[in-house]
C-alpha cells in the first residue's frame, strides 16, 4: 500500500495549482481541474512553454464552480478596500479579480495542440486582467457543460483542457531518485510543483520492508488499475515532459536546464520523449482525500 500525500487541482490550465485536503474525482479529473484556459484573441491556448508568467496567476474556485478568483502571486493579493465593479467581474485593486463564471455565453472555437474544441468566453474583465498581467492580448474560456472530449491511451477516458489524460500521478520516491541523479551533476533539488501532478503518493508509514512498493522509484509506471478512496483509475500512458518543467513556479521564469538535462540521461521512453510520472483515466468517480490508501489492483510492465 501507499498513501496520498498531496492533491492539486489546476482550475486554469497553465496557472498555479490549488492544494486540497479532499475533493471529488469526476470523469474528467479532480473537480474543476483544467476547466478554464487562457487563449490568444484567435483562440489559441497559452502555456508556460511560451508564457511562463502564467505560473504567477493563482486561481481559486468555489466548490460549485460558480465563482473564480484570479490573484497575482507577483504583486500579492487583496482588494485594497476599493474594489471596482465592471462587467461580470469585481476587481480588487490591480492584484485580484473576482469573477462570476458564465456557462450561458456564446461558444467559440479554441485551439489546443492543433485540435479544435469549444470554449465559453468569460468576458472583458477577465480578458483585461490577464492581458495586463501577461503582457499579451488574452482571453479566458471555460469548458462548456456539453464538452465531450475523448482521451487516448491504454485506458480511454475524458478530460477538460488538460494536455491529455484526466489525472497525473507522481511518487515522492521518483522525485527523490531524480534529485540524487541531479546531485551527481551538482544541481540543486527542485520543488514537486515543477511537474504539476494532481496526485502525489508516498510509502505508507510503518510499511514492512519488501512490501513497500511505493519506495521504489517509478513504481507508478507499472500500475495499470488502482483504487484510491472511493475512486478507481486506469493507466493511460507515461507523462512526457516538456519545457514547462524548466519554469520556476515561484518566479514565473525559466530557471535553467534541469530537470530535463538529467531526465534525458535515464528516462527516455521506447516510443520517444523524456518521461516522468504516469497519467490515468477515471474508471469510477468518487471522493479523494489526503491520507487515502492506494490499492493497486493490476500491475504491468514499465514502458521506460
Describe it for me?
The chain is mainly beta and 304 residues long. The protein has helices at residues 124-134, 172-184, 260-263; strands spanning 2-9, 12-13, 18-20, 22-26, 29-30, 36-39, 57-61, 67-72, 84-86, 89-92, 96-100, 107-112, 115-121, 139-142, 167-171, 199-203, 223-228, 231-240, 247-248, 253-254, 275-284, 286-289, 293-299. The strands form five sheets. A seven-stranded mixed β-barrel has the order 1-16-15-21-18-17-23. Strand 4 (22-26) and strand 5 (29-30) form a beta hairpin. The protein starts with a strand and ends in a 5-residue tail after the last strand. Residues 76-88 have low confidence and may be disordered.
The global form is globular
Distance between the termini: 23 Å
Following the backbone from N to C, one meets helices and strands in this order, namely EEEEEEEEEEEEEHEEHEEEEEHEEE
How helix-rich are the residues, as a percent range? Answer: under 10%
Largest sheet: number of strands, sense, barrel closure: 7 strands, mixed, barrel
Low-confidence stretches: 76-88
Mean pLDDT: 92
Structural class: mainly beta
Query: Order of strands across the widest beta sheet?
Result: 1-16-15-21-18-17-23
How many H/I helical runs? 3
Rg over CA atoms, rounded to whole Å, is 19 Å
What's the count of strands?
A: 23
Strand content: 35-45%
Task: Please give a quick description of this structure.
The chain has 304 residues and is mainly β.
What is the topology?
Blueprint: E1 2-9, E2 12-13, E3 18-20, E4 22-26, E5 29-30, E6 36-39, E7 57-61, E8 67-72, E9 84-86, E10 89-92, E11 96-100, E12 107-112, E13 115-121, H1 124-134, E14 139-142, E15 167-171, H2 172-184, E16 199-203, E17 223-228, E18 231-240, E19 247-248, E20 253-254, H3 260-263, E21 275-284, E22 286-289, E23 293-299
Amino acid at each position: 500500500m501507499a498513501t496520498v500525500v498531496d492533491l492539486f487541482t489546476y482550475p486554469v490550465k497553465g496557472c498555479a495549482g490549488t492544494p486540497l485536503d479532499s475533493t471529488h474525482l469526476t470523469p474528467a479529473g479532480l473537480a474543476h481541474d483544467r476547466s478554464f484556459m487562457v487563449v490568444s484573441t484567435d483562440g489559441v491556448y497559452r502555456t508556460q512553454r511560451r508564457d511562463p508568467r502564467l505560473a504567477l496567476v493563482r486561481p481559486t474556485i468555489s466548490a460549485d464552480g460558480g465563482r473564480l478568483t484570479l490573484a497575482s502571486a507577483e504583486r500579492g493579493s487583496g482588494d485594497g478596500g476599493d474594489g471596482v465593479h465592471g462587467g461580470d467581474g469585481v476587481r480588487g485593486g490591480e492584484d485580484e479579480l473576482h469573477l462570476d463564471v458564465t456557462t450561458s455565453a456564446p461558444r467559440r472555437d479554441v485551439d489546443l495542440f492543433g485540435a479544435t474544441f469549444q470554449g465559453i468566453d468569460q468576458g472583458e474583465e477577465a480578458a483585461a486582467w490577464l492581458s495586463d498581467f501577461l503582457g499579451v492580448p488574452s482571453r479566458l474560456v471555460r469548458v462548456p457543460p456539453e464538452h465531450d472530449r475523448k482521451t487516448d491511451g491504454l485506458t480511454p477516458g475524458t478530460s477538460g483542457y488538460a494536455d491529455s489524460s484526466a489525472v497525473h500521478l507522481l511518487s515522492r520516491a521518483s522525485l527523490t531518485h531524480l534529485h540524487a541523479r541531479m546531485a551527481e551533476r551538482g544541481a540543486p533539488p527542485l520543488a514537486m510543483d515543477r511537474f504539476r501532478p494532481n496526485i502525489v503518493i508516498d510509502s505508507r508509514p510503518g510499511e514492512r520492508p519488501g512490501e513497500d512498493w511505493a519506495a521504489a522509484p517509478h513504481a507508478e509506471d507499472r500500475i495499470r488499475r488502482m483504487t484510491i478512496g472511493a475512486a478507481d483509475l486506469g493507466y493511460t500512458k507515461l507523462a512526457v515532459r516538456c519545457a514547462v518543467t524548466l519554469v520556476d513556479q515561484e518566479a514565473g521564469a525559466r530557471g535553467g536546464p534541469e530537470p530535463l538535462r538529467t531526465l534525458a540521461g535515464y528516462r527516455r521512453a521506447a516510443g520517444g520523449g523524456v518521461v516522468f510520472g504516469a497519467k490515468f483515466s477515471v474508471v469510477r468517480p468518487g471522493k479523494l482525500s489526503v491520507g487515502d490508501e492506494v490499492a493497486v489492483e493490476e500491475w504491468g510492465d514499465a514502458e521506460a
